[in-house]
Each structure stands twice: as structure tokens, then as C-alpha cells.
Give the backbone structure.
Amino acid sequence: MIAVIDYGVGNLFSLRASLRHIGAESTVTADPDEIRSADRIILPGVGAFGDSYCKLEKTGLVQVIKEEASRGKPMLGICLGMQLLFSESLEYGVHKGLGLIDGRVVPMADELPGGLKVPHMGWNNLKILKKSGIFKYISDGDSVYYVHSFYAKCDPKYISAVSEYGIDITGAVERENIFGTQFHPEKSGETGLDILRAFSEI
Amino acid sequence: MLAKRIIPCLDVRDGRVVKGVNFSTLKDVSDPVALAKYYNDSGADELVFYDITATYDGRKLFTDVLQRVASEIFIPLTVGGGINTVDDFDRVLKCGADKVSVNSGAIKDPSLIGAAAKKYGDQCVVLSMDVKRTARGFSVFARGGRDDTGIDAVQWARRGEAEGAGEIVLNSIDTDGVKRGFDIEMLQAVSDSVSIPVIASGGAGCAEDFLRLFKQVPRVDAGLAASVFHFGEIKIPELKKMLRDGGINVRI
């Protein structure tokens, strides 16, 4: 059973449908007991970092997520959910994150060469740097769907894939049982389904 | 590298795809789910569903269709048609849309863009513009291209971006249905004035029109068309191969 954490942000229709499609059982929940008893956790998210972290704190789930992460439970953060895994974000001020991976989330606009649009929106191909557990069914160069204006900077040892958009954008991260994708696997066609399938088998 | 997107647009009335379609492999060519699957399998990067129903019952059928498509197709889905309030956004997002396009609704009340962007994020709000040449220049038309609003297209695109739109669809009334290519001049003028992604629409008649579009207007991010795809005049896998051979980065 995969617990998809419900803290009132984002549209979970496609994520639930794609998990159903690959035959993975999931439940959308904010119940600490249900999260503790699940085999895996997905942290979704769309919107602003600060607001979302506040909502996560309000639901009292920050502690539960940290505990389950340290127990070794496979966890996947998607888009903003991946950014929340990091120590802090500079999106509209400085905000603290879950700190499960050391690093910070920064605005892309400050670092991209001139002329490139923000948000980074659309299909981009993955350069796989580490054959992460979530990439076992996909190949280097496969395309995934991104929509974001901020990106994560961290020690390269945590970066499992990048996509080129003027600079190398952190596409996916991994630290032991903690995984994150900046792109949306639930919107990335067969490639995305293959990534979710691999996560459901970790 | 970010790929240029190819986007088929499907008009839906009372739960069925309207424009006549001619696919030998599809039994029911007006079934939106079958057609969405077909396009997904042929490499469409995104799908736009346009609800042309005017009745309440038709709307209900549309959201049913949307749910069925979103349960089986895992690429971005944009929905437009009859979006006038934040509640309309809510209605289609709950059924699996990823982005919602507003047109006349935003002309009537530009604050709708900001209100929706604040609630659902900029990436969710697509400003769709029907543009036509008039004595004053490029003008924005409302109500499916019937009413000249007198608003300048460049100004309206900039306003939409400032209000919080995450993307713009630029449809040329002058080239729409003519099948002799996209409206390069208009697309250049408007896309140069904004820094959010722009989708070009109106006028595609052959695969080369897409190549010319992406070569001549590099700031355009995607090309949208309806009938040329529905009638099989352009096949997406062949189109993408031709674009790639022509030096355009596409997802294959």
C-alpha cells in the first residue's frame, strides 16, 4: 500500500489514476497511523514552498514523515514534494524544508542564460547519472514532463538525473530510501508510469 | 533540451468528439477516450479538450469524458470552453485536467486569471486569445471570434502574463481553417512581447507548416491543430520525424 500524503495541495487525480493503472494500491491520507502502516510514501505537491510546508506542519505530518524516512521506508517526493525534501528554499523568502536531503531550492531565473523562459514547462530528456532504483525500467535520454520555476541545488552525490535547460537542472534525487523527481511521472506517459512502477517495487 | 510540443485539439459536444475523423484503426472515431488514446500512442505531447456544449447536461457529459480520459492517458490535459469563474476551474480540475484555458471569460473579467492562478498556480492558467487583423492592428476577439473587443493583442498578452497566466494560446482567426500555414507575423509580434510559453494555433495545413513555425518563430513553444490531425492529413509520428530531421528538438 502506497500512502499518498494529503495535505490539501495539488491535484491528485492523475497520480491516483496512474498508480491504479500500474496496479499499485494507494490511499490518499493525512492519517498518521495509515502513513505508518503503508509500505511506501509519496509526497506530492504543486504550489508555493512556504505555504505547502506550513500546511504539512499544520497537519502534524512533518514528524511522521521524518520518522518513517529514518526507518528506511521508500519515499518519493514529486515536483514541489521533491523540493520539500531539502533543507531550505529561497522561494519568496527563506523557508525551512524537511531536511531529508541536504541542499537548497533556488530560483531558476537567476541562473539561466538569457532568453530562456521560466517556468521550465514541457518535455525534456533525462540524463541519468545514477541508475537509481526508480530508473530500472527507463533509459538514458527518455523524456519527462516538467513544470517548475525553482530547482534544487545539492551535493552531486544525491543527484540521480538532470535535464539540460541552459544549465543542468536537477531532475531527480536519491539518498538511500528517499527519492525525488522534479518532473511529474504521472504526466510523463509510459516513461513516467515505468518510474512509478519501479518505485512501487522498491 | 526542452522539446517543441505538438498538440491536437479535440472539440467535444455532448460527450462526443465533433469534427469528422478518418482513422482506419479506430472503430468509433467520435469516442473521446479512444481518440485520446490514439493520439497518446502516436506521440502527442499534450491534448486540448474544448467543450463546445452549451447545456448543463452536456457539461456533465463533458466532465465524465474528462474523467475517463484522465484515468487512462498520462500526458498533460488542457481543458477549455465555458470557463467563466473559479468554480469552473474547480469543476474540470477535479476531473483530471492539468491546465484550464480561459478566453472570453477573462476578457469579461481579467481578475479571473489572477484569482485562478493564486488558487491553483500559474502553471494551471492558460490564456487563450483569438486574434484578427483590423485597421488598428492585431485585435483580440471574444465569443469564439465574433466580437471585436478593440483590445490590442500584444497589450492583452502582456496583461495576461502580469495577471498570472502561465501559458498563452495564440489563435489566428485570419489563418484558421485556411490551411496555408500559421500566422507567422502575428505570432512573432505577440510571442516577442511575453516571457511565458506560447502555443501557436490556426492555419496548419501540412507538416512543413510546423517546421516553418518553429524555425521562423523560435519563441513559440508548441503548435496546436485540430482537423489536419483528425482527418489524418498530418500523422504525428511522421511530423515529428520530419521536424527532428529539420533540426527541431521534439520528443520521439
Residues 43 and 252 of chain B are 7 Å apart (CA to CA). The mean pLDDT of chain B is 91. The two ends of chain B are 13 Å apart (CA to CA).
